[in-house]
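Hey, quick one: can you model this chain's 3D structure?
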Amino acid sequence: MVRFSLTFLLFFFILAANSSANLDINEVMYAPSTVLGSENEWIELYSSGNTSLNLSNCTLDGKAIPKTIIDGNSYLILANNLGLFNTSYHDIPAIKLSLNLNNDQDTILLKCQWNETFSEEKRFSYEQQQGAYRNNFTLERRSDNTWSESIEELGTPGRENSIFDFASNFRDLKISEILPDPFWEDDLLKPEGEWVELYNGGKKTMYLKGLILKDGSDDHELYVVESKIINSAGLFLQPKNYVTIYRDGDTDFALNNEGMETVRLFYGDELLDEVSYSGSTSGMSWSNIKETFYLTPPTPDRVNQISEGCDWLLLMNSSSSIFHSADFTFDVYVSRFIGLPRNVTVRGKIEDAFGETIKEYSPWTNVLIDDERGVSYSPNLAEGIYQITFWIDELGCNDTDEMDNSVSRIFSINSQYQVFQPSLAIQDLYLGSDESAAWGEQFLVKVNAYKGNSTKTSLELWAEQDGEIVSERSKVNLYDKFQNITLSLPLQLEARCNGDDDALDLIFSGLGLEVKEEFKVEGVEASLCDQEASSEPSSGSKTKEKQPAFQILDLPQITSVGAILPLKIQLKNNEKESLSYELWAYVYQGNKCYSCGNAATEREANKKIINLKNGETKQLTLYSKLDDTLKPGEYKIKVKMKREGQKTEKELTETIYLLEEQESSLGISSLAGGDEEFPSNSSEARRTSTSSVQETNTAGIVVYQSSSAKSLTVLPYIFIISLILIGIVLIIHR
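Sure thing. Here's the predicted structure for all 734 residues.
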């Protein structure tokens, strides 16, 4: 009897040990994507017991698992192709086992003979409809032994399944709140527009992928995807929590504002929940409170609540707090935020600085207002300081926040008021009678700029074709606040001798603004392309084209009367020996020179001589002081160059433009060159018609100097001379 008892107990302990050492099929990659490789199939086993298991007597689909031991609460990966597996899953151990899993459907059989008397079988059957078919996901087992597609891409080999603790069905998921008629448009992007709220009444987290919302029509679908959700948890809905699915611009799903409407929730073809309602009120949602739906204030992602009160508010809009008497306008709005439509009475008044009522208003008297009403006023008031006040006089409900039932604003009427906002405008393009430009052509563009109170100074004009800049940039700087200026800027299009007819965009940008206007370009500037063609070597010529002996690199093509015009030139010696070159420049119109000191100096007054070795290139700047007698308009600047040993001179000619006097406070940058800007924060650094100082990048050269600035520079000399004279007088008297 004792021997029988011991044998029974030994068998019981062996049986208990094996039953506690449970081995399960836990995860399957049955149809890898082409990216992972079609042979990259694998199966994960999981030991949920506390003891180690020897798998020497285990088979998978009749194939012996290699001799291995799996620890308790551990994972074992059986991979069909170890090379592919290790490439896709770094540092995750696996053992080789030949697998051949069908992609449409299959059953996996795991058999283990733990000892002579105890064996165990586990089966897992799957179908392609369950997911994980060639999409880089796997099939995973949940804690309740149900299966579904993994949440994480590539699955979770060697660790807990991504869906292990998730609910296996949606029976505890309910439609909890519906907003069919928001204050604004129904199809606005989140968080505006229509929405439907869901509630997880269960005990486990739900993963909402695959859910679909439908209205009363079966083909009006709103898919529950992460892009339709604002909540940071996304598609993961925790127990006793809410998630709001926004329409977010969806074009077919739409909720009726009048009459009957039904909202339904599906998973595939399975209907999970549906809610019907009749009619709606703007800004109010239908909320599930103790299994009954009520019209309540919207509470997306929060607990639904019934509000017995209401909340109305007044708003006042105006463009500023300072106005001209002619442009004073303001708007008043009354809005329902919470509650049902009501009859509303609103009153208002304007008081002067002494508290005297100047005007009274009654925009609404016992008027039924659904969601919002607005009215505009433009009173004609004398200069002075005023206060506007509007208030809700009667409201047939208990307002929960009376602080917003009135609105008040102080403003002033001042005829000297200046508009703070800057503005830009393209006024005209001087394109000729055909209203089109040609590639390589230069023309003028009339623009207007108002600086307002902007701290930015730069203005630029250019042309674009499909976002690509196809012209030089004309650039000016506007320094004085509240300055309104109209000027004509040159625009030089690229030279495209094979350019097609097209429409270009003219861009005028600056002061934080940008305006655009389209214009046509037709054909090519003939003279430009004729010159280009004549300069090309013949097909039989093998001579390498030389770089131009001299060329203009940078020239401010917009300047002002009396300014000094810097002209940057590059010169190269293409000859075999060292040579000297003479260069000079002058501004002219017709036969008259306008940079010759009112005819007091020669045209070669700014001549420079430069010596160059064979192949050497140098750059230099010539300065031309413009005469004070010039009038605004178009002028030419000519650059001449004479080489040592030659009698003939070579020359280059460019066009420059002089601005009106009222425009002379603009800092001008070169049309062709660079990103340099003139100083913008010092009044002494601005170029003006009466008093300004402008320095170039060349040390010690003052471009223009006012009489006040000049007086400052000679003060030391006057002081020294005065001391000398006083000394002489003292000596004489002594």
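One thing worth noting: Helices lie at 2-20, 82-88, 526-535, 707-733.
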